[in-house]
Write a structure and sequence with these properties.
The protein has about 260 residues and is α/β, with parallel strands linked by helices. It contains 10 helices and 8 strands. It starts with a helix and ends with a strand. The relative contact order is 0.15.
Length: about 260
């Protein structure tokens, strides 16, 4: 196998495209071409990616303040700072973070970059979100996340990669059923509107995105208590000092975001 094939430099990679949009350094020309094609169809795509990143940081800090000390992030991709474990452990030393992905490239970067400090723990694990039973079993076998205690499950920019035929709502329900009462689900999900044009551009580069309307995204929280401000757009979820410069509209950031707690 050549290096080009091994590193998939012949086709765009979802994680590398996202890394490019966030200003990261881990991407190739094929990824930049895909990102710019998406930007042409959806000019605020980089702003949307940033809104998702800053939302994740705010959620982590908020849940730590609520007493959560265990985080599982599915679909880690090629992250850029601030990393989840850095944010959580800075707020509460000793917090445990487990990153999960199926993609070997993402796992390789995660294994290098995502190391915990401040007396806490972080590690990465290979598991497939579309097989929730196996994923939960892998977490339990790993042994560093106690599924008998509350866990914050992050599914950011993950569910819109899963087609309806794989029943993403059932996947989420099974995952949350496997977590202790008091556990939280945080998700982001592309909305229709601008994302349909972006999805077409992504598909031309071999990446499939599945935007969903609000009523379908709300269904992911069935049986959970939606925390204030319930389901909104990413830049409106408990905005703080990290809000983008200048006014931002929901049309510019068509990215649903919300957090639900298991009773």
């Amino acid at each position: 196998m050549t290096d080009d094939v091994a590193l998939s430099q012949d086709r765009a990679h979802t994680a590398r495209v996202h890394n490019y949009l966030l200003g990261g350094m881990n991407h190739y020309s094929v990824d930049r071409a895909a990102a710019e094609a998406v930007r042409a169809a959806f000019p605020s795509i980089a702003l949307t990616a940033l809104a998702g990143q800053t939302y994740a940081d705010r959620v982590a800090r908020h849940l730590v303040r609520q007493g959560v000390r265990q985080f599982v992030e599915v679909g880690v991709g090629l992250p850029v700072k601030p990393f989840l474990h850095e944010t959580a452990q800075a707020a509460a030393p000793g917090t445990r973070v487990l990153y999960i992905d199926t993609d070997w490239l993402s796992l390789a970067y995660a294994d290098t970059l995502l190391t915990g400090d401040r007396g806490g723990f972080s590690d990465c694990l290979e598991a497939d979100v579309t097989d929730p039973e196996a994923l939960l079993a892998a977490v339990e076998q790993h042994g560093r996340i106690d599924l008998g205690r509350p866990v914050a499950l992050f599914l950011h920019a993950v569910l819109d990669l899963i087609p309806a035929g794989q029943d993403p709502h059932e996947i989420v329900e099974q995952l949350m059923d496997g977590l202790a009462p008091g556990s939280c689900l945080s998700l982001t999900h592309s909305a229709p509107d601008a994302w349909h044009a972006a999805a077409d551009a992504y598909q031309q580069h071999g990446i499939r995105i599945h935007p969903r309307p609000r009523e379908q995204v709300v269904r992911f929280f069935e049986g959970l208590e939606l925390l204030h401000p319930r389901l909104t757009t990413a830049h409106r979820w408990r905005p703080g000092t990290d809000r983008p410069a200048g006014p931002v509209t929901d049309q510019q950031v068509p990215l649903y975001a919300g957090v639900g707690r298991r009773p």
